[in-house]
Amino acid sequence: MEITKKDSDIIISGCDSFDVSQTFDCGQCFRFAPLEDGSWAGVAFGRYLRVSPMESGAVLHGTSMEDFENIWRDFFDLDTDYCSVKEQICTDEIIRDAIVKAGGIRLLRQDLWETLISFIVSQNNNIPRIKKIIEALCRSYGSRIPSPAGEVYAFPDPETLASARVEDLHELGTGYRDEYIHLAAEAVRDGSLDLAELSRMETPEARKTLLAMKGIGGKVADCILLFGMHRTEVCPHDVWVKRIFTEKYHIENITEKKGYAFATPRWGQYAGIAQQYLFHAEREESK
Q: Hey, what CATH class is 2-77 in?
């Protein structure tokens, strides 16, 4: 992989397994959207970024080398060898086919606080609506940040979101999730949920801590662990993955327990990455 700077752009070249569209459109991140020119733009860690795809890499527009090293290198997980990951999880024809179709996905290293709230919003929801709700939360409670794209807002901090009335959160389209968002924000603000401590926990303990929170079940907890803490051994079981396990791997009466009993010995520490390939390939195939 080669990183070069040209004017205000950072060019990432020679980077296998980096498809910008697949990475932003696979359900792991809700604040980036496609533009008419084929690029994607959005906000992460309080920074606006536009990203254009290129063969074996991408161009990050309007950013500095300092921000690249401090934010974007880690955000795009550029130091992980995804070719090696694919070799390790390529255990059968089904996952091999998914890798061919969706192997450009990189598992983003996202902000844990934002991921916590985003996946509370995600439960029993579809991706377009999740994005709409999160954008409304940011516009209502986030701070405005510099951008060439007009009004752009950072994700609101715990203190600000905790101070919002549940009724006002409901008005943004959150539905029954309004209470769960408010309780999570209060827990982080008050320290009863210490995100730094959560990050240091072993995965089973961190999962147990998340499940103790009102409004967080197994699938949401696993998404927070995978997308907010980069616990790549975690395999969220949403309706798509359950369908794959049932129809393609022929697991009868699929449950989370049965799914893990199947996925963990097969894909080990990268079960979550395998899940992303399977999920995105299945969703694209259904279109």
A: alpha beta
